[in-house]
């Protein structure tokens, strides 16, 4: 489990295209400290499993389902990525409960800068809009954010300078894809109340959900 508090801005150093998957090598001096084979690291909000670890780099295999359902398939050598290690038991939950199981992708629609923050408008798939509410939580590229405004096909977030400086959202431009994970509590409540939960029961997981 993650919190959506990005630990560092990493970089893709190699991409190997396999028959039905891809293998990424990523650099992250902070998240690789003490990393071992089989550990989990969130990459742009997707929970991936460490295959190899050497120095400040690690490799992770990404299956076709995850490539198709997330924005990881668009990564290339030199791409910057948000990295976060799982939360340790007993630590503060600084963001919100993040599973690392991407529900879908959106794209940056527009950015409105101001003196002390920036408003970013992001497109929202129709099947996820019912989970997104004003002042609720959403994960964008692995970043725990508060929804400012929620529409039927979009939402907005307000980003402080720290978020702009230390995450991928400081560099994303209109048209760029982002990974979205809605608040898992909303999906469980819907299912328990007998709502439209069957549609969300098959939402795509990632490697972290299939181990």
From TrEMBL:
EC number of this enzyme: 2.5.1.9
PANTHER family, sorted: RIBOFLAVIN SYNTHASE (PTHR21098:SF12), RIBOFLAVIN SYNTHASE ALPHA CHAIN (PTHR21098)
InterPro entries: ATP_synth_asu-like_sf, Lumazine-bd, Lumazine-bd_dom, Riboflavin_synthase-like_b-brl
Residue windows of the Lumazine-binding repeats: 1-96, 97-193
Domain of life: Bacteria
The Lumazine-binding domain, residue ranges: 1-96, 97-193
Function: Catalyzes the dismutation of two molecules of 6,7-dimethyl-8-ribityllumazine, resulting in the formation of riboflavin and 5-amino-6-(D-ribitylamino)uracil.
Pathway noted in the entry: Cofactor biosynthesis; riboflavin biosynthesis; riboflavin from 2-hydroxy-3-oxobutyl phosphate and 5-amino-6-(D-ribitylamino)uracil: step 2/2
Catalyzed chemical reaction(s): 2 6,7-dimethyl-8-(1-D-ribityl)lumazine + H(+) = 5-amino-6-(D-ribitylamino)uracil + riboflavin
Keyword terms, alphabetized: Repeat, Riboflavin biosynthesis, Transferase
PROSITE patterns reported in the protein's UniProt record: LUMAZINE_BIND
Record protein name field: Riboflavin synthase
């Amino acid at each position: 489990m993650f919190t959506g508090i990005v630990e560092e801005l990493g970089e893709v150093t190699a991409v190997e295209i396999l028959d039905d998957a891809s293998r990424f090598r990523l650099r992250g001096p902070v998240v690789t400290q003490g990393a071992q084979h089989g550990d989990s690291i969130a990459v742009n909000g997707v929970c991936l499993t460490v295959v190899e670890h050497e120095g400040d780099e690690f490799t992770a295999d990404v299956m076709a389902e995850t490539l198709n359902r997330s924005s990881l398939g668009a990564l290339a050598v030199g791409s910057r990525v948000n990295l976060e290690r799982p939360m340790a038991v007993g630590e503060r939950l600084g963001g919100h409960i993040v599973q690392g199981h991407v529900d879908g992708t959106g794209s940056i629609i527009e950015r409105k800068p101001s003196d002390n923050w920036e408003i970013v408008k992001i497109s929202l798939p129709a099947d996820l809009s019912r989970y997104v509410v004003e002042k609720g939580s959403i994960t964008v590229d692995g970043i725990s954010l508060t929804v400012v405004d929620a529409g039927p096909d979009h939402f907005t977030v307000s980003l402080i300078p720290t978020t702009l400086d230390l995450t991928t959202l400081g560099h994303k431009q209109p048209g760029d894809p982002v990974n979205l994970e809605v608040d898992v509590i909303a999906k469980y409540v819907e299912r328990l109340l007998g709502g439209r939960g069957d549609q969300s029961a098959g939402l795509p997981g990632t490697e972290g959900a299939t181990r």
